[in-house]
Design a protein that fits this description.
This protein is an alpha+beta fold. Helix content is 25%, strand content 18%. A two-stranded antiparallel sheet has the order 1-2. Bound molecules: zinc ion.
Length: 68
Amino acid sequence: MASCTRNTLIAVDHHTTIHEVGEGGVQAVCSCGWRGPVFGADKTAGTMDPLQRAADAGDLHEWEMSLR
Ligand SMILES: [Zn+2]
């Protein structure tokens, strides 16, 4: 809590971080309690990096919340 380096363009309190879940799964979790879908636990993700997909989901959530 000592530092705040997130994007200052987003004024609302939505800050997502990537958590590992299960066996090889990754998920974006927001400070508001929102959780994104789990990526990477199964192998259906194709060529995209599960970490990148989880981060994208988190970014999308932050962006959507910033519009309200
Ligand atoms: Zn949020």
